[in-house]
């Protein structure tokens, strides 16, 4: 009886929710049409779609509870911006899936609930009306089993028992099966599609990538500080002592003086290599001045008139800042060496997708990656962050390098 009761409760609630779902369909249509009324639907309709998602998730939870299975909750939030909200409401696969389920719920919830009402209600109703058969008028007696009139207590008890057993048997057999079937149908209809699962996976990877980039940037800064303040400082001290030792040695020291000279020169070479490693790993100027100050300094020393235009960049992961710095530095170096340009424009902007870097010069064009123009290195740095590089350099110019670096968090 517990199974019958749970199934009956599920289906009877589904009967009410089916009626509500039937009313929600024209409301959604009104929400779409209201876009013509001062653009009201641009704000209202996405929120109606979110309400539909909550409605669907509530039914999904009920179905999972009946079947005693667990399901992962789907996102019920709205992105920032009216445009993004509208695109999610109109084009999002989840919104279309919820709308299809709403139509199914209206079409299946009502008849399934009526069947449960007929089965359970028939059994309980028969018991109730049989007890008061004598209240019915003589000309219109109570009829059980469809057509048999009840004229006395004997007929009432016998016919009532038979009808109660039949209705109860139907409810006992049909209601739990129908409830489970409807619940499975609900879960199937609202199960995330491959497209939605892929989008969610991409979102998870984007978040995890942002965390990895932050951790990687912090580690780069730590290593840079350790090398700059520790190893490099020690090499400087060693080189200075070796230099002092060379100066204090007598001229007739011979082999010892030569060894000191080689050691001194080796220490200086090691310092130069270490500085280059630090610069290519995480430029100290980024720590000192930030990306804006670093790019301004690079442009000022580019050897070619360069203009830097920066949008609202916000906080960028250190790895993205370093990659942007190297992209701009390499592009300006290429322009100064190969393009013959009189002016270069560097523009950095940020949107929902990430950081957009555009370097345009008015040079002769014809950039060829196979001739060591540095574009291969730019592509590698962008690819390390799952970014993209587009180079447009027709003969006669101009040359445009467009780099997109994902950095959404």
Automatic annotation (TrEMBL):
InterPro entries this protein is in?
Answer: HATPase_C_sf (IPR036890), HATPase_dom (IPR003594), Put_sensor_dom (IPR025828), Sensor_HK_TwoCompSys (IPR050482), Sig_transdc_His_kin_sub3_dim/P (IPR011712)
Q: Which sequence ranges are marked TM in the entry?
A: 12-45, 114-136, 156-175
One GO molecular function term?
A: phosphorelay sensor kinase activity
Under SUPFAM superfamilies, the record lists: ATPase domain of HSP90 chaperone/DNA topoisomerase II/histidine kinase
The record's annotation in CDD domains points to: HATPase_UhpB-NarQ-NarX-like (cd16917)
Q: Provide the alphabetized UniProt keywords.
A: ATP-binding, Kinase, Membrane, Nucleotide-binding, Phosphoprotein, Transferase, Transmembrane, Transmembrane helix, Two-component regulatory system
Q: Show where the Histidine kinase/HSP90-like ATPase domain sits.
A: 319-409
What SMART domains does this protein's entry cite? Answer: HATPase_c (SM00387)
Q: What is this enzyme's EC?
A: 2.7.13.3
Keyword flag Magnesium: no
Record's catalysed reaction(s): ATP + protein L-histidine = ADP + protein N-phospho-L-histidine
Question: What do the Gene Ontology cellular component annotations say?
Answer: membrane
Return the protein name: histidine kinase
- Which source organism does the UniProt entry give? Streptomyces gilvosporeus
């Amino acid at each position: 009886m517990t199974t019958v009761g749970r199934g009956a409760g599920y289906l009877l609630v589904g009967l009410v929710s089916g009626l509500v779902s039937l009313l929600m369909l024209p409301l959604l249509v009104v929400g779409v049409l209201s876009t013509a009324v001062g653009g009201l639907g641009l704000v209202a309709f996405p929120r109606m779609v979110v309400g539909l998602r909550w409605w669907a998730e509530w039914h999904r939870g009920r179905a999972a509870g009946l079947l005693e299975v667990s399901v992962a909750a789907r996102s019920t939030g709205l992105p920032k911006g009216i445009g993004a909200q509208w695109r999610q409401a109109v084009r999002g696969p989840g919104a279309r899936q919820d709308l299809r389920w709403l139509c199914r719920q209206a079409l299946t919830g009502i008849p399934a609930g009526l069947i449960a009402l007929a089965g359970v209600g028939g059994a309980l109703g028969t018991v109730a009306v049989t007890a008061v058969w004598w209240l019915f008028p003589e000309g219109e007696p109570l009829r059980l089993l469809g057509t048999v009139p009840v004229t006395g207590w004997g007929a009432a008890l016998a016919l009532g028992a038979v009808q109660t057993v039949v209705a109860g048997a139907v409810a006992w057999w049909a209601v739990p099966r129908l409830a489970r079937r409807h619940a499975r149908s609900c879960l199937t209809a609202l199960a995330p599609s491959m497209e939605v699962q892929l989008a969610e996976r991409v979102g998870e990877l984007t978040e995890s990538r942002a965390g990895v980039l932050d951790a990687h940037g912090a580690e780069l800064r730590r290593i840079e500080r350790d090398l700059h303040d520790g190893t490099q400082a020690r090499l400087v001290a060693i080189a200075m002592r070796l230099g002092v030792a060379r100066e204090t040695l007598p001229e007739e020291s011979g082999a010892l003086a030569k060894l000191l000279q080689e050691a001194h020169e080796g220490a200086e070479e090691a310092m130069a290599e270490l500085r280059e490693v630090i610069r290519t790993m995480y430029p100290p100027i980024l720590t000192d001045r930030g990306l804006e100050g670093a790019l301004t300094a690079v442009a000022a020393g580019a050897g070619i008139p360069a203009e830097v235009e920066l949008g609202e960049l916000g906080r960028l992961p250190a790895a993205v800042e370093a990659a942007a710095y190297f992209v701009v530095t390499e592009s300006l170096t290429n322009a100064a060496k190969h393009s013959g340009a009189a002016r270069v424009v560097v523009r950095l902007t940020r949107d929902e997708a990430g950081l957009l870097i555009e370097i345009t010069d008015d040079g002769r064009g014809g950039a060829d990656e196979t001739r060591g123009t540095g574009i291969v290195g730019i592509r590698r740095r962008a690819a390390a962050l799952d970014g993209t590089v587009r180079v447009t350099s027709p003969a006669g110019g101009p040359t445009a390098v467009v780099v997109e670096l994902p950095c959404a968090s």
